[in-house]
Design a protein that fits this description.
- With 226 residues, the chain is an alpha/beta fold.
- It has a single domain, classed as Spore Coat Polysaccharide Biosynthesis Protein SpsA, Chain A, CATH 3.90.550.
- It is built from 6 helices and 11 strands.
- The strands form 3 sheets. It has a 7-stranded mixed beta sheet, sandwiched between helices. It has a two-stranded antiparallel sheet with strand order 2-3.
- A hairpin with a 2-residue loop joins strand 2 and strand 3.
- Helix 2 packs across helix 4 and helix 4 packs across helix 5.
- The longest helix is centred in the middle third of the chain and has 12 residues.
- The termini are far apart.
- The structure holds cytidine-5'-triphosphate and magnesium ion.
- Cytidine-5'-triphosphate binds next to strand 1 and helix 2.
- This is 2-C-methyl-D-erythritol 4-phosphate cytidylyltransferase.
- Its EC number is 2.7.7.60.
- Catalyzes the formation of 4-diphosphocytidyl-2-C-methyl-D-erythritol from CTP and 2-C-methyl-D-erythritol 4-phosphate (MEP).
Length: 226
């Protein structure tokens, strides 16, 4: 029986956040941001181990107490120059079986709920390719020129925003990321091999904390959950 693992890339520097501390360590509802996603992943009885991919010279990880998560949480100091490289390095270091499932989840999505995670696992584990959490685009889409003037309105029919976790078999993801190293999410690499991952409906609450103004919204959502 193949097992399910999680891998959290957390080797970025958060340049759009503009803080000196990498954004995954910024205080959010009383904890470093990454803590919240780890709590949700580690709480899932479907998930065997949660690997965290950190920068090779990460100076912050050991400054926090992770003992709550016990052996279920495994840090790997092998992050790369891009998200895709961090995921690939982590996959190779984790030494999983090729048919094990892997959930890749951004450290910067602290508001992932237990329900969203369980739904993704339930749908994807029976899928031949795998699946990702995503939301259908609700707003009207505009194409802009260099002066921020509207060039045209894009058709949003059938357009979805990709989130994480993204769940694939380890072997497929290894092959995909090795042949498409410049992707911004895992599904893109799998798509480049000609596969069509399943879109599993999520909600806007599982957004990625990217800019300073996102912190307040994430804190509100987390406070509301308690
Ligand atoms: N990530 C990573 N290794 C990198 C770049 C990003 O592990 N070389 C991780 C981030 O830590 C984050 C996730 O990938 O958890 C999603 O990336 P993003 O939100 O873009 O974070 P950053 O790259 O850190 O932010 P920015 O793009 O603003 O610099
Ligand atoms: Mg980035």
């Amino acid at each position: 029986m193949s097992e399910i693992f999680a891998l959290v890339p957390a080797a970025g520097c958060g340049s759009r956040m503009g803080s000196e501390l990498p954004k995954q360590y910024l205080q959010l509802a009383g904890q470093p941001m990454i803590y919240h996603a780890l709590l949700t992943l580690c709480a899932s009885s479907d998930v065997k181990t949660v690997f965290v991919v950190l920068a090779p010279h990460d100076m912050y990880w050991h400054g926090y107490d992770w003992s709550l998560f016990g052996d279920k949480l495994q840090p790997l100091f092998c992050g790369g120059a891009t998200r895709a490289e961090s995921v690939l390095n982590g996959l190779m270091a984790a030494e999983l079986e090729l048919d094990d499932w892997l959930l890749v989840h951004d450290a910067a999505r602290p508001c992932l709920s237990h329900k969203q995670l369980a739904h993704l696992i339930e749908v994807s584990r029976d899928d031949e390719v795998g699946g990702i959490l995503a939301v259908p685009v609700a707003d009207t889409l505009k194409r802009a020129d260099a002066e921020c003037r509207i060039v045209q309105t894009e058709n949003r029919e059938g357009v979805w925003q990709a989130q994480t976790p993204q769940m694939f078999r380890t072997g497929l993801l290894l092959q995909a990321l090795r042949s498409a190293p410049n992707v911004t999410d895992d599904a893109s690499a799998v798509e480049a091999l000609g596969f069509h991952p399943k879109l599993v409906t999520s909600s806007a609450s599982n957004f990625k904390v990217t800019y300073p103004q996102d912190i307040e919204l994430a804190e509100l959502l987390l406070a509301n959950r308690k």
